[in-house]
Structures are given as C-alpha cells and as structure tokens.
Amino acid sequence: MRIIKVRDYQDMSRKAANVISAQMILKPDSVLGLATGSTPLGLYEKLVEWYGKGDLDFAQVKTVNLDEYVGLSADNDQSYRYFMNKNLFSKVNIDPKNVNIPDGTNQDAEAECERYEKVIESLGGIDIQLLGIGNNGHIGFNEPAETFMMKTHRVDLTESTIEANKRFFEDVSMVPRQAYTMGIGTIMKAKKIVMVASGKTKAPIIKEAFTGEITPRVPASVLQLHQDFTLIADEEALSLM
Ligand code: GLP
Known about the structure:
Blueprint: E1 2-6, H1 9-26, E2 31-34, H2 41-52, E3 62-65, E4 67-69, H3 80-87, E5 99-100, H4 109-122, E6 128-131, E7 153-156, H5 159-165, E8 178-181, H6 184-188, E9 192-197, H7 203-211, E10 229-234
Parallel strand pairs: 1-10, 2-3, 2-6, 3-5, 6-9, 9-10
Antiparallel strand pairs: 4-8, 7-8
C-alpha cells in the first residue's frame, strides 16, 4: 500500500481528484467505483470544476456505486442515488445509462445483489474504486463481522454506523437499518483502490486498519493485501501513525 500524506481536506480532495482525472484521461471509458459520505464531497467538487473548464469528459465513463440504503428510492434526498445525482452526475456530461447504484427499493435482496454483481462483471470490472472509511473501519457498508462477506449483499447496519449517519437525517428513527453494499471481494477485485480520509476523528481507525492485523472485525484492514491501494489522508487522519 501507498500512503500519500496531505496537509488538509482541500489538499486531499485535489490530489484524489487528480488521481481520478488521470484515470479518466488515460482511459476515457473507465469504470469508476464511487463512494458517498462527506469525505468525497470536495473531490467531486473538483471534478465538476475541471469538467466545467473542459479538462474532463464523462461522455464514455461508467460508474458503479458502493452501496445504497434499503428502502430508499432515488427521489428520497437521503438515498445515495440522490446524493450522487446532486453532487456529481447532474453537473457533468455522464450518460444516465452508464450510472449504476444498487436499487434500494428492490426488496428481493438475493435478486438485487445478484443483479448488481452481474452489472459490474458485464462492465469488465472496476478500474478504480474510491473509498471512504467508517469510524468502525467499514468500507462501503461492510460492517465489522466474523468473516469477510465477499459479494454484494444486504447488511444490517451497526448501531455506531446508524449513530454516525443520523446527522444527515431529521431524526435517528429515520436512518435505514439495512443497506445493500458491494462485498469485500467485489471491492478487492478493483484494479486500483483509492481511499480518502480526513480529520482527527478518523485517526484511530486509520491506525488500526493499516498498522494492525488483517481481520474482518476491521473491514478496511483487508486493503493492506491489495496490490494497488493508495490512502490519501491528511495530517490529522494520519496523526496516530
Ligand atoms: C457511510 C458510507 C461509507 C463512507 C462512510 C464514512 O457509511 N457508506 O462509504 O465511507 O459513511 O463517511 P464520511 O466520509 O462522512 O465520514
């Protein structure tokens, strides 16, 4: 693994956006694996800005998002599809047909997870997967567990994740209890993986995930085994390393 230490959130966002841009320039029909959460917001802003300047073209780009809440439809402003439309897709020239996100409204978990794995396979796999990290070490919504779940699956969110994500909802009771997420195997098959992390609150989990043992109890720790994994993190997030 490679660690790129940056000054602050702005610096992290710019460098991560540069890595994604390089991928898009070298391979205009790249399959981008995208993430939600507050950490990638700055890098999406940069991509939109550079698209506006004519430096980036999304015409042939394909995207697959990591996860989606079960039960939320695309027009629900807390769904990850809504987040992606608002912060990236509506602002660039991506073809909506090329956007893929698990369908939170499909209650048939088995069918939805199988469909999503097939979508990724049919695109030829993910060229570059962007990740954030949950305070408990989750990636996508792969929560700490006794074993690594390999494929796209439906997951029960942990109390700490529900707690962390309640800031986006009116009330904690409105936070969905389940999500569809790519599995650890789905993520690890990406040709390149880039994680962004910023701020003091992420320092303990960054240390545990990347200097500790590889265990499904800290899902992000598995990334130590990926052949092309880059962590772009600011000084605060790396302060305990
Ligand atoms: C959610 C998402 C993750 C994300 C995490 C951290 O749980 N499913 O993909 O990495 O939040 O979010 P933030 O970047 O807001 O700390």
